[in-house]
Design goal:
491 residues, mainly alpha, Proton glutamate symport protein, two-stranded antiparallel ribbon, disordered N terminus, disordered C terminus, transmembrane helix, symporter activity, cell membrane, Na:dicarbo_symporter_sf, transport
Length: 491
């Protein structure tokens, strides 16, 4: 024993490193800071971006006031360009992240015989939060009565360019090609825009992952490559996420300058009703769900803040999806094997803001505006469409399409959609913030109930978000070891 202890300090794997670790260097830098870490962390930087964006937005709006209606100032154009570029950077990482994460997840979950129970629980909690969210939307619409307290001109009514249908869910699931890639000709006809259907990518990745597992040893090199590629993608993704304060400033500045806040005049009560409903979901429904599952309410919102704030300014669940997954894993303690399935699915089908609160309030608005009386069966239909309809419109994104599905189910005039288009960007900001928050909440709740929530990771996520921290506390812990832990937890 004596010889063993004497030789320990000279061993290459001894606890004394040859050079300071990244964590040690970060600690030393932190000691030299004049400001506390909570004032210089990632969350504080995003808040600073919001404040700076508001200031720049009001400046740009002032500059636009002296220009023709079809022209923007240089500052407004700069904010639009920078903000759009940031959202595009986030979106470009979604396809490779979904493919590699889902395939790796399927491979790591091959030992879990009850993995289907996790998927079923995820869908159930999606439906539970959607159910209470649509109840909130109906209640707010009936109390505030936005359709009767509006001065919007009836000539603004116009049929929407696209409508939702119950067949869209099947069409959205069946892949059009191996990449889930879609193409659309621009209105001018001089360019073609490409887009990825994330639901199709999810189905394709699940199929490839299952096939690789069934193939056996011959597929091990492929699975090893996929897992390695996932780590590379996550590294590149984090570089993009670190630009969030700049993107936030540009996006909120562009919103203030160009989204036409003056449009609130005639539709002010409708916007108020939407944001009251969204606030109740964030402030009452979600906290009740967290408390029911014995999760700290304040702790959850501190952890999910980067997701909520980016959802508000980007207005894109797909664009925020990489951030949602990283926060859900790194700050909530949801195992990556489960999060890589739940988060992409949630980003496609779970939309408490767009598919529950908004269509409920908007349908009541249209009914009140046209003087149509809704009965008890109509409200049941609103609830049904809101809980189930988000999946039915998964192949055609957008709250407007979801609204057309609700109106057509109720037999209300589809032209009423045109009444609300003027304030679409304004309400979309709040809707998306609720959407992405609910996506992270559902994954966390299911992980908690299944007993797979990593408590040390949850505890470590209480403080400021560390930009340099690994996804898991122990970076040498392999994904297959995590799968073994997940197996025992589920059993």
């Amino acid at each position: 024993m004596a010889s063993t202890s004497a030789s320990t300090p000279t061993s290459p794997s001894a606890s004394t490193p040859a050079s300071p670790s990244a964590a040690t260097q970060k600690t030393r830098r932190g000691r030299n800071r004049l400001l506390p870490q909570w004032m210089t962390g990632f969350g504080a930087q995003v808040i600073a971006g919001l404040i700076i964006g508001l200031i720049l937005g009001f400046i740009a709006k002032g500059q636009n006031a002296g220009l023709p209606a079809n022209e923007d100032s240089w500052l407004s154009g700069l904010l639009d360009g920078v903000g759009s570029a940031y959202v595009q950077l986030l979106k470009v990482m979604v396809p490779p992240l979904v493919i590699t994460a889902v395939i790796t997840s399927v491979a790591n979950l091959r030992k879990v015989t009850n993995a289907a129970r996790l998927a079923a629980s995820t869908l159930i909690w999606f439906a539970i939060t959607a159910f209470f969210s649509v109840l909130v939307g109906i209640g707010v619409g009936l109390i505030i009565r936005p359709g009767e307290n509006t001065s919007v001109d009836a000539t603004a009514a116009a049929d929407p360019g696209s409508t939702g249908s119950w067949l869209a869910f099947i069409q959205g699931i069946v892949p059009e090609n191996i990449l889930g890639l879609g193409a659309k000709l621009s209105d001018s006809g001089d360019s073609v825009g490409l887009s990825f259907n994330v639901l199709q990518l999810l189905v394709i990745s699940l199929a490839i992952g299952i096939a690789a597992v069934k193939t056996g040893p011959a597929a091990e090199p492929f699975l090893g490559f996929t897992e390695s590629l996932l780590k590379i993608i996550q590294t590149v993704l984090w570089w993009i996420i670190r630009l969030a304060p700049i993107g936030t400033a540009a996006l909120i500045g562009h919103a203030v300058a160009d989204y036409g806040w003056d449009a609130l005049g005639s539709l002010g009560m409708f916007v108020l009703a939407i944001y009251v409903g969204l606030a109740i979901v964030l402030g009452v429904v979600y906290p009740a769900v967290l408390a029911f599952n014995r999760l700290p309410v304040a702790g959850f919102y501190r952890r999910v803040w980067p997701v909520t704030s980016l959802g508000f300014v980007t207005r894109s669940s797909m664009g925020v999806m990489p951030v949602t997954q990283r926060v859900t894993e790194q700050r909530m303690g949801v195992p990556s094997e489960y999060a890589s399935f739940a988060v992409p699915l949630g980003a496609t089908t779970k939309m408490d803001g767009c598919a529950s609160v908004y269509p409920a309030v908007a349908a009541i608005f249209v009914a009140q505006f046209y003087g149509v009386q809704l009965d008890f069966v109509d409200y049941l239909l609103i609830i049904f469409v809101s809980v189930i309809g988000s999946a039915a419109t998964a192949g055609t994104t957008g709250a407007t399409v979801m609204l057309t599905l609700t109106l057509s189910t109720l037999g209300l005039p589809l032209a009423g959609v045109g009444l609300l288009l003027a304030i679409e960007p304004i309400v979309d900001m709040g809707r998306t913030a609720v959407n992405v928050t609910g996506q992270s909440l559902a994954a966390t709740v299911v992980a908690k109930r299944a007993g797979i929530l990593d408590q040390p990771t949850w505890d470590a996520g209480e403080g400021p978000w560390n930009a340099d921290a690994p996804t898991h506390e122990n970076p040498q812990e392999s994904s297959r070891d995590r799968a073994d832990q997940l197996t025992s937890a589920v059993h």
